[in-house]
Amino acid sequence: MLNADALSQLRQLKTDIKENKVVFPGTVKATNGRFGFVALDEGRDVFLPPEEMQKVLPGDRVNVTEQEGDKGKIQGVVDELLDSSLNTFVGRYLIKGKGHFVVPETPGINRWIFIPPKERMNAEQDDFIYCRIHRHPIKDGKGQAKILKVLGKPGDTGIERALTLATFDLPDTWPEAVQQQADALSEADIEAHSDGREDRTALPYVTIDSPGTQDMDDALLAEPNATGWKLSIAIADPTAVIEPGSAAENEAFRRATAIYFPGEPLPMLPDTLSTRLCSLMPEVKRLALVCDLQVNNDGSLGAYSFHQAVIQSKGKLSYELVSNLIEGREDDDIKALPDAVANSLDQLHQTATALRKWRGEHALLSADRPEFRLRLDENKRVRLIEPSVQNEAHRLVEECMVAANRCAADFLSQQAKGLFIQHPGLRADRADNIRALLDGYAPDLSGVDATSAEGFRELMKHTDNLSAEVPVKAILSRQLARAELAFDAAPHQGMGLPAYTTFTSPLRKFSDFHVHRLIKAVLWQDAPAELSGEQLAELQTTQIRARQAANSLENWLKSDFAKTLGTEPMTGVISRTVPAGFFVRLDANGLEGFVSCRTLEGKYGFDPVTLRLIHNKNGRIFQLEQPVTVTFADVDEERRQINFKLVSAEEVAATKGTDSEKAGA
């Protein structure tokens, strides 16, 4: 038995050890295996063995110490949990004997988590469930979960959307205060807010959208003048009826953007506002923030001004109808257009043509890429994927929106603080590879400073039709940085413009909604609009999560549809390359699938400069934009990734021969 002195010495020894122990703060990074890493704040990673990984969750902030493990390898030991960001997650309900568990669908949680009897909500085997961490596993590696909602079973109608919403913590209902605020508004409020605004209800504004669009943000008109055209872009004005700091505005900020999920969008504002009272519906008075601007004959922009107005759209026109009018076709719908509307559409086309010509010469135009539309069946699964044709009417609307947004960016750049979209061009961490690419395959451009706006614009323009051994433009485009929101004006290199913002979609994007507030605060002493740096970062993060959610649901629906492709060879082009293989985008429907190097003969090395896969012995190459023929192989259900198998030229020829024989028979 230890005496008092010995106990005191032991306590002092423990205190000394604790005080002298070196701990490192960091963030837990999971892997597909049972082990993981801690990304230390000082910039290096520490290995976490499986027994330590059991104590933490992906994204946890922890303190770790280092010790020597098996075979002398340094590994981390979790010393303390600082913070856990993983709160909710989705998974499948699993019953094993008397134990009830959730098998998480969240990447990086490679374990079953026990669900106590009181937290099971009558879930059944294989149900998809939405859960909260009920007890963190930091103490003994044995975490617990609580079911918040039973989402449904595999195969249920709409389960894909429900699971996606839960996975990304996206709200599918309106808070009571928001719904009450929306329901309290009526046409009388539109009339009341019309006082003091310019009355433009007699002018021939029209909306141009897809037939099914209900949340119409913009209406257009144009008229000629001595030096070009006066272009007028009327943008829906929800900030007129939504008070600053109100429940509806706070919820719009929390959602950040409408998400256009296949079949059923997730709006940013309640339908009362987005598709009725604020939408620029035809033949009714609507509040608008209008940008009037002079477009010169050469497509350059002249003077511009902003106005608070009341408009009355003279028609909800489809892209197809306007395109037919531009192409000189005549049908009953075109003949029924009022002369003022038809004349304005003609002037709009001329204006947009001049704007596009100027952008092609002085800025950058995005290349037209084939787009596809998912058509869902009654079970909310893909029954058809069809091309979405971009016609002259789409380009007309695009040019008008870009012109109006350029004016907004120019206006805000003169203020102390605005809200802009910056794009730095190429990724800084790829600078050495890009320099090597230009030295080797575009030496005339190797001296261009791609970090400057002028240099980036020159680089992208001169690689458009460059004849080289590798597709230089495609390689550069695969290494672009992400556009970001910022308070200060800076170049948007992807568009080749000195500054850019957007205010043309306030019913769908909170950033546009906020830009409305900023413009009004300056011009009409409206309520000042302020976002903190933390709020800006949160808005950016929410926008990114929304895009990830939309992509996740699309990938799930597409991977299920891919199972119907059969075994027929399909043509496509290589859209992306990675060391493990390459992705192919099919010509017929835009589906992307992966061809693994493991399914190819021999070994391939990856060239980070040209993004090519090169056979180690015979030199066979796979590179971006290369046409290939593939067949459907399978679907990786965990990643929801379509896998293809490469078809050789001999197999393609044999297939064609068989088809010819069948036709001859």
Q: Distance between termini?
A: 100 Å
Count of discrete alpha- or pi-helical segments spanning 4 or more residues? 17
Average pLDDT score: 92
Helix content: 25-40%
Tally of extended strands?
29
- Helix/strand-derived category reads alpha+beta
Let me know the largest β-sheet.
Answer: 5 strands, antiparallel
Overall description:
The longest helix has 30 residues, at 533-562. This protein folds into 5 domains: 4-83, OB fold (Dihydrolipoamide Acetyltransferase, E2P), CATH 2.40.50.140; 88-154, Beta Barrel (OB fold (Dihydrolipoamide Acetyltransferase, E2P)); 176-392, no CATH class; 424-482, no CATH class; 563-664, OB fold (Dihydrolipoamide Acetyltransferase, E2P), CATH 2.40.50.140. Strands 3-2-1-4-5 form a 5-stranded antiparallel beta sheet. Strands 8-7-6-9-10 form a 5-stranded antiparallel beta sheet. The radius of gyration is 29 Å and the shape is globular. The chain is of the alpha+beta class and 665 residues long. It is built from 17 helices and 29 strands. It is 31% helix and 27% strand. Helix 3 packs antiparallel against helix 16 and helix 10 crosses helix 11.
Q: Main attributes?
A:
single chain; 665 residues; alpha+beta; OB fold (Dihydrolipoamide Acetyltransferase, E2P); five-stranded antiparallel sheet; 17 helices; 29 strands
Topology:
Layout: H1 4-20, E1 24-30, E2 36-40, E3 45-48, H2 50-53, E4 61-68, E5 74-83, E6 88-96, E7 99-104, E8 113-114, E9 128-135, E10 144-152, H3 159-167, H4 176-183, H5 187-193, E11 198-200, E12 207-209, E13 218-225, E14 228-236, H6 247-255, H7 271-277, E15 286-296, E16 301-311, E17 316-318, H8 319-326, H9 332-335, H10 339-362, E18 371-376, E19 382-388, H11 392-413, E20 420-422, H12 431-441, H13 453-462, H14 472-477, E21 484-486, H15 510-524, H16 533-562, E22 570-578, E23 581-586, E24 592-596, E25 604-607, E26 612-615, E27 621-622, E28 627-636, E29 641-646, H17 649-664
Parallel strand pairs: 11-16, 12-17
Antiparallel strand pairs: 1-2, 1-4, 2-3, 4-5, 6-7, 6-9, 7-8, 9-10, 13-14, 14-15, 15-16, 18-19, 20-21, 22-23, 22-28, 23-24, 25-26, 26-27, 28-29
